Amino acid sequence: MKKTISGIRGIFGEDFTLKETLQFCNNFSSLIQSQKCVIGKDTRPSGQMVKETASAALLKNGIDVFDLGTAPTPVVFRESRKYGAGVIVTSSHNPLEWNGLKFIIDGRGINEEELPKILENQKISKTKIGSEEKISSSYIEDAKKLIGSIQNNPEIVIDIGGGATRDYAPKLLSETGCNIHVINGELSNCTRGPDPTADSLSDLVTASSSKDIGFAFDLDGDRLVVVKDGKKQTPDVTLGLGVAKALDLGYKNFVLSIDTSVSIEKFIKERGGSVQRSKVGEANVIDLMLKSNAQAGGEGSSAGFILPEFNYCREGILTSGLIASMLRDSNYQEILNFMQSYHQTREKTNVDSQFHDKVIENIAKEMSKNYSEVITLDGIKGIIDEDSWVLIRKSNTEDIIRVSAESNNKEKSMKITQDNLKLVRECYERVR
Predict the structure, then answer these.
(1) pTM greater than 0.85 (yes/no)
(2) DSSP states along 252-285
(3) Which of 291, 308, 340 is the last residue of a domain?
(4) For the chain, what is the mean pLDDT?
């Protein structure tokens, strides 16, 4: 089981069970000052029983529960601003046999100070049993106000991936002026995996080849991948298009994770904006946003655009609408070409979590010999030149180490990645 600020995740019935659900939600109750909590789930088979158990733990501690049913992560985040807290039953992009919990306080994910309070048993003084109410969300109406009316009725294919966006993304895009076609609307007949950043999205590539664009979501709707002109785009392109729209809306101050494409940073700075870099991870990006009053940003590796004005989370659904509003803009292709001129290569290799720190320590020694600048904000980032870099870091959610590289030359990016994957494996062999 993984226990981080990104969420608690495990294989349901093995290392993540209803017992852990009761324990963690009971502890989370101590952090809810409003005594109100909104709850939702994605479409995983175990989702309903986990949600009912989570609700029971909250109710017994005097928390009033507002149930959204099946709802994407961005919708629960948005509603939690009204109620003060939120719980999402999801394991995001992990395989279907996994499940987990995301916790929200005051519209943002929990931080490093709050996580231990959820993991360690808390004594809670309850005065009553909470009440439960099923609710609907104003998310679509709220998002429409920000996106506006989309002109010229672009043709869009939406790959739901069998996930929780099925009642939200199609409606939002349709009501803002798009002509839509939905594929993989139900989990039972879905032809791809939960994570669109890792899947080939072959059905979406085919279905969208004669359309303006294709959008693919993960199971809980915070990740979005773009398919354009018969080609699946990198996650950084999704973020880059969101950033371009934010600049168009007048936002200037951005936070990007350390693994986000240098093309996005250059694009922002060339248009008078500023960029700060954070550790990888949605919560880390948002934490720096809050501290610096940044207006927008995100992390490239998860295609996660974040607009704090609307939500303190990766916003797959809203971003799809913002990108759709740009499709017939005369500058759209120029923006896309700029983002596509850089090439990111992201790989991972299996490394048992107990060896992560030792492997990273060994890699740091080797990289200091080869690169003039080494950044240790999060993992180890080696700057090769103004257009090329490599980042090696341990995963917070899986038994893997990730290697990310970028260059304005595709072959160079691939070679950098493969050379450093080899280095990771050699260091792993040394410490095991």
Answers:
(1) yes
(2) -EEEEETTS-HHHHHHHHHTT-EEEEE-SSHHHH
(3) 340
(4) 93
